[in-house]
Amino acid sequence: MSITTYKPSRGDLERLSKFRAPYQQTIDELKVKLKGIKYGCLEQDCYSPIEFVVGRVKTVESLLKKAEKKGVQVGNGNWIEDIEQHVYDIAGLRVVTRYLEDIREVQQILCEREDFQVVEITDYIETPKESGYRSVHLVVRYPTYHGSQKKEVLCEIQLRTMSMNFWATNEHELRYKYDEKLPVEMKEQLRRAADTAYELDLQMAQFRREIRTSQEMRLEDTVANEDKLEEIFSLYVKKDFNRAAELYQTYFGRDHDFAYNPKLQMIDEMLNSRLLKKPVS
């Protein structure tokens, strides 16, 4: 029976409401856990691969449409129970990241969790949909206790960058507006836009690598300069002023700037002001 003609009875609506409840609980619990990953990473590394998390349980209307697409005979037999066997994204979460590398990091974190099990991974980044859609979809089996009853619920977690999410959100709204019948020209424009968004992700990933390389080089430089200043300071404390002044000139000369590091700047200013006044015999 097609959902275009079938109208759920009051009893069916009550059953669907009870059916959806554990899924809503799963969304609520997993959102807390995903946000826990975000804030835990921020505390540890001052950076989180997770930008934000959103979630939803399919509405009754959306659920029935999806069930019919999956071949469920809506309105016949144990059709509500059949929905659970055929529809895996009744509960859905979306994790949005800044960078492509963040998606892989979040994917690894989720696969290593012990409080739920990843049962399926579909990589639409490696193999985009014909529309241009890109994302990584994880189907997880999550045990939840609804009342006194334990129930294992399937939930789909989508991993997207911000640009992927921007494209997908707009594409979804356009498909809804055109009742899933997008004009051919618009489909092609959307596909090109998806490719452009992915190129932006790749460019941002390259910028990030360059920034990280620069930061790592600066960190190595800071550590090296700290060692040099400590060596000079040790000589200064021992009153070996000549050797300290020689090393200072050898290591730094007059063309250096430690303004980026207050600690180095303080030590440097102290040594500079004192050592350069000491004659080197």
UniProtKB/TrEMBL annotation:
Annotated InterPro entries: GTP_Pyrophosphokinase, NT_sf, RelA_SpoT
GO biological process per UniProt: guanosine tetraphosphate biosynthetic process
SMART domains linked: RelA_SpoT (SM00954)
GO molecular function, one term: kinase activity
Domain of life of the native organism: Bacteria
Pathway field: Purine metabolism; ppGpp biosynthesis; ppGpp from GTP: step 1/2
Keywords carried by this UniProt record: Kinase, Transferase
Kinase recorded as keyword: yes
Pfam families, sorted: RelA_SpoT
Residue stretches making up the RelA/SpoT domain: 55-182
PANTHER family listed in its UniProt record: GTP PYROPHOSPHOKINASE YJBM
Protein name: Putative GTP pyrophosphokinase
